Amino acid sequence: MSEEIIKIAEQARQASLVLQSSTTEQKNATITKIREFLEKDKEAILKANQQDLEKAKVEVDAGRLSASLFKRLDLSRGDKYQALLEGVTDVVKLPDPTGKITLATKMDEGLELYRVTCPVGVLLIIFEARPEVVVQISCLAIKSGNAVILKGGKEAYNSNIALYKSLQNAISSLPPEQAIPLASVQLVSSRDEINELLGLDQYIDLVIPRGSKKMVRFIQGSTRIPVLGHADGLCSTYVDEFADIQKSPKVVTDAKVNYPAACNATETLLIHSAVLQSQLPAIAKSLVAQGVHMRADERALAVLKSTDIAPDMYQAATPEDFDTEFLELTIAVKVVDSLQEAIAHINLHGSHHTESIITENKENAETFMAKVDAAGVYWNASTRFADGFRYGFGAEIGVSTNKTHARGPVGLEGLVIYKYKIYGSGNAVGDYGAGKRSYIHSKIPIDQE
């Protein structure tokens, strides 16, 4: 274990102890300053990002880097940079998640118990080709009182460095009364450093990987530190027999094409056999108009062949297609004969991320949402809504399919745990028992205002 890595972890631990007692005003001042510096440094950051894009394009052309990863790398795409800045401001506006009383009990006269939210401690965030994560995670970590160690993918090396420098300059520019430790946010670069950090469970409290299934699986199997995240984003949309033809093409198309490389994009379309003839042609034409290729099972393929859709836009599906996260303009199509069959397929082949049903039948919708085992279950809405920003969480730390304290899009609430505080007056356990004092255990009204 290198001394440098141990020093990074130790500094993060010390910073986390300071952050635990930082005020909301201090944390908000830091995040506001971060936005100010990101706006000032935009030109330099995008220039660094362009260097990464040029190198990545060579890798894409050589077949060594996927097109989906390349898209995630681009900070200048559309309104991505502006959205990044707005996400920072949104974090400032969010309530401080720490110091909230979630339980208050009067155990006895002069003996009170409180459960209070507090930071997790030190976070290790490992991500691929998403340079904006440097900013999103840092702001969420600061707001929730956590220190963070970041490791980005080599594809985004220059972008990550530029963003990190901007953040560090912002933190160091604060006056002493608002300052937080510089080590609250640290960046490491090499894979060897990550392998070492994964062994430092005495300093690091939570690992959050954001990237490929291979990367997430590797991390999950390489550390004793708790890991929050998901390895796959294999989402499905089910068109029920009571689906509205005015809604299904729009919802399915958005779920597939809005951002195909995202983990919440729909990869499988399930359609009830009773509406196969009426629904699939309209949905398929909407998808094809956006460049989507379909991999259809036997019954769906027969319907597609009866339309005027170009034959090169669809092909027969293989069993593997229904277990594939395409992350591009490709979708698997399967016909089912019942709601229960759709639910069974999703629970067997899905990744417990986000699933949607399109139907006008409330009972079917509620059954679907109750029986599908996923972090997000939607009724007549695109799977692309599975996002911390869209949920109103501000920037997102990641998406978790874990069945732990945080599930689905994880914002600030996923970065706090709690501690129990007892306020006594010289009480001893030996004072209680048969023939002695009895516990009251009455609720204390909680006033957070």
UniProtKB/TrEMBL annotation:
Keywords from the named record: Amino-acid biosynthesis, NADP, Oxidoreductase, Proline biosynthesis
Domain named Aldehyde dehydrogenase: residues: 3-286
CDD domains per UniProt: ALDH_F18-19_ProA-GPR
Enzyme class per UniProt: oxidoreductase
GO biological process: L-proline biosynthetic process
InterPro entries to which the protein is assigned, alphabetical: Ald_DH/histidinol_DH, Ald_DH_C, Ald_DH_N, Aldehyde_DH_dom, G-glutamylP_reductase_CS, Glu-5-SA_DH, GPR_dom
Catalytic activity: L-glutamate 5-semialdehyde + phosphate + NADP(+) = L-glutamyl 5-phosphate + NADPH + H(+)
Taxonomy, superkingdom: Eukaryota
Molecular function per GO: glutamate-5-semialdehyde dehydrogenase activity; NADP binding
EC number from the UniProt entry: 1.2.1.41
Pfam families: Aldedh
Pathway per the UniProt entry: Amino-acid biosynthesis; L-proline biosynthesis; L-glutamate 5-semialdehyde from L-glutamate: step 2/2
Record-stated family: Belongs to the gamma-glutamyl phosphate reductase family.
Role according to the record: Catalyzes the NADPH dependent reduction of L-gamma-glutamyl 5-phosphate into L-glutamate 5-semialdehyde and phosphate. The product spontaneously undergoes cyclization to form 1-pyrroline-5-carboxylate.
UniProt-recorded name of the protein: glutamate-5-semialdehyde dehydrogenase
